[in-house]
Write a structure and sequence with these properties.
The protein is mainly α. It has one domain. It is 86% helix and 0% strand. It contains 5 helices and no strands. α1 runs antiparallel to α4. The termini are far apart. InterPro entries: Cpx_auxiliary_protein.
């Protein structure tokens, strides 16, 4: 039961984490997860050794990093109103997903889910604060 709940929470958090991570708000978290799943499925059939698996994983990470950078470049060109509308729509989508998950859980699971969600939000806020501090420090250093 715990493994199922953990897997469910991780699956629910992936789109949120993708949006909260580097390239924040690029809206490509779900698609990236889907592409990763396809690559993982394909790699299982190749009987890779550890070194090959590591190299492919590193290449995938680099590709996703570049993908986020490209998407972010285009998002940076959007007017503020469009960015705000996109963020609002993404948040509504996350809220809808959270509600669907909560509706499937028992009362005890909902309580734990809420606790985990609160912890995730706190970590996200701390990360945002850290990134702001880091950017400020880098500006002072220049």
């Amino acid at each position: 039961m715990r493994k199922t709940l953990t897997a469910l929470l991780l699956a629910a958090a992936l789109p949120t984490l993708a949006i909260a991570g580097p390239g924040m708000g690029d809206g490509y978290g779900h698609g990236a997860h889907h592409m990763k799943g396809d690559a993982t499925h394909m790699m299982r059939g190749l009987d890779l050794d550890r070194e090959q698996h590591r190299k492919i994983r590193d290449a995938q990470r680099e590709q996703m990093k570049e993908h986020r950078a490209i998407v972010q470049r285009y998002l940076d060109k959007l007017p503020a109103a469009d960015k705000a509308a996109m963020e609002k729509e993404l948040q509504a989508n996350r809220d809808k997903q959270q509600k669907a998950i909560r509706d499937t859980l028992t009362a005890e699971q909902q309580k734990r889910f809420d606790e985990l969600s609160k912890e995730r939000e706190q970590r996200r806020a701390e990360r945002t604060e850290f990134e702001a501090w880091k950017a400020e420090r880098e500006q002072k250093a220049q």
